[in-house]
Amino acid sequence: MLSKEKTAITHIDDGFDFLGWTFRKFNGKLIVKPSKSSIKSIIRKCSMIILKEGKASRQSDIVRRLNQVIRGWTNYHKHVVASHAFSYVNNTLYLLLQRWAKHRHPNKNKWWRLNRYWHESKGKPWVFMTDEYTLINLRRIRIVRRLNLQISKNPFLDKEYFSKRKRKLHSLTAA
């Protein structure tokens, strides 16, 4: 039996949210991207880690906890159209970490705080890191699309197609 509160009948052009994704058709093409509620949820979790739990925590503890949350969320969403969402969450994280640093050192200027907590790593400037941990930069997460499967192919009859597809999938995930 369907629940009236949870059920909505909508046109695909208007879109709908399901399992943290927004499904919507743009110009005849189905676009799946992280929903606004999913983005708000990850930002809320990160702000709790940074501003509530992390007020007295060390930088390495904050980075370790944030990396766990970020890695899980990005692994779930990296197969859809998510680069704008990743960029938005990354910018918001930067602002939250700036607030955290300002709370820890209210009498120091911005450049002192930046040089204390943000360093250069592998040629990339302004990375929030310690000697042990480096915060994941969401902008550098690769969006990995799934290969479309040809429905007309049979795994028992078209072994060459499936072996080529398997090699291609393996090369995409290894890179």
How much beta, percentage-wise? 5-15%
Low-confidence stretches: none
DSSP strand count: 5
Biggest β-sheet description = 3 strands, antiparallel
Distance between the termini: 45 Å
Question: What is the mean pLDDT?
Answer: 90
Overall, the morphology is globular
Helix fraction by DSSP (H/I, runs of at least 4): 40-55%
How would you describe this structure to a colleague?
The protein is an alpha+beta fold. The chain folds into 2 domains: 35-140, no CATH class; 146-175. The protein is built from 5 helices and 5 strands, in the order βββααααββα. It has helices at residues 36-53, 59-77, 83-104, 110-117, 159-174; strands spanning 16-18, 21-26, 29-34, 118-121, 124-128. The strands form 2 sheets. A 3-stranded antiparallel sheet has the order 1-2-3. The chain has a two-stranded antiparallel sheet with strand order 4-5. The protein is globular. 18% of the residues are buried. The model has no long low-confidence stretch (mean pLDDT 90).
Write the topology of this structure:
Layout: E1 16-18, E2 21-26, E3 29-34, H1 36-53, H2 59-77, H3 83-104, H4 110-117, E4 118-121, E5 124-128, H5 159-174
Antiparallel strand pairs: 1-2, 2-3, 4-5
Could you give a quick summary of the protein structure above?
The protein has helices at residues 36-53, 59-77, 83-104, 110-117, 159-174; strands at residues 16-18, 21-26, 29-34, 118-121, 124-128. It is 47% helix and 14% strand.
